[in-house]
Backbone:
């Protein structure tokens, strides 16, 4: 069974319990942060109240209370917070992402985002897995991009936007990179190379001249967000009208399969 036909039914799981298939930090880091902070506070309080002599034992105790345990608390709380920002619930916590979140979690939707969210190996991190950068500094760059989102939400006007305005105004900073698709959908497997359009467009796909997530290929990740009206009618309606008015001619023998639209569309 190829990854394109993998379903939750075959995995024996559902959208609600997919998080167990994806490793993440879990709540223990938060408990570690709270525990370390509590120990550090107790040591400092003990010293301030009891005022013991500064012998070697007390110096070591203060070193632990002022250095070791605060460092553990800071590190583990940062890691727990960063892990939390990779969850789908966090991505959908801003109202301007409501439509994207609802589309991705709709069990009846057939968009790329919805189908990938139902894949158990994405778990509750489907937004992050698809939108993260995957180069050497990908994690850090992704988090810096997330900080930009926070800035735009609180200081850039996103917080005051209606859902209709958000659909029209909020877009990806750059076209979606096919490399993100290829992290999972390898282009070396036989199931990929058996598709004529894949072979014909391999160079264009590798150079991002054609997007995997375009209307002519696998469809938009969030179709509702396309078009000048922000609800998909302009792009999807125009595509349907063009297809009806200009049906594709039959390919001649030996000719390569017709190429999908070469315009790069961000999901």
Residues:
């Amino acid at each position: 069974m190829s990854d394109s036909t993998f379903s939750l039914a075959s995995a024996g799981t559902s959208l609600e319990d997919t998080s167990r298939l994806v490793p993440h930090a879990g709540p223990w880091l938060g408990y570690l942060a709270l525990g370390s902070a509590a120990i550090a506070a107790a040591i400092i309080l003990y010293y301030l109240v009891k005022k013991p002599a500064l012998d070697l034992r007390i110096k070591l105790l203060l070193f632990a209370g002022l250095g070791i345990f605060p460092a553990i608390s800071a590190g583990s709380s940062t890691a727990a917070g960063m892990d939390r920002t990779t969850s789908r619930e966090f991505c959908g916590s801003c109202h301007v992402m409501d439509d994207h979140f609802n589309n991705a979690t709709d069990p009846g939707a057939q968009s790329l985002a919805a189908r990938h969210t139902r894949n158990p190996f994405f778990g509750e991190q489907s937004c992050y897995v698809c939108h993260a950068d995957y180069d050497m500094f990908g994690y850090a760059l992704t988090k810096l991009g997330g900080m930009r989102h926070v800035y735009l939400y609180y200081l850039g006007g996103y917080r005051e936007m209606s859902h209709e305005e958000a659909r029209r105004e909020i877009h990806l900073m750059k076209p979606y990179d096919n490399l993100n698709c290829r992290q999972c959908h390898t282009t070396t497997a036989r199931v990929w190379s058996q598709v004529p359009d894949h072979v014909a467009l391999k160079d264009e796909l590798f150079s991002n001249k054609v997007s995997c997530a375009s209307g002519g290929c696998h469809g938009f990740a969030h179709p509702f967000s396309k078009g000048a009206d922000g609800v998909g009618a302009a792009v999807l309606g125009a595509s349907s009208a063009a297809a009806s008015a200009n049906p594709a001619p039959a390919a001649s023998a030996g000719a390569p399969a017709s190429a999908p639209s070469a315009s790069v569309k961000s999901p």
In short: The chain is about 50% helix and 0% strand. The radius of gyration is 25 Å. The chain has three domains: 13-84, 91-170, 178-243.
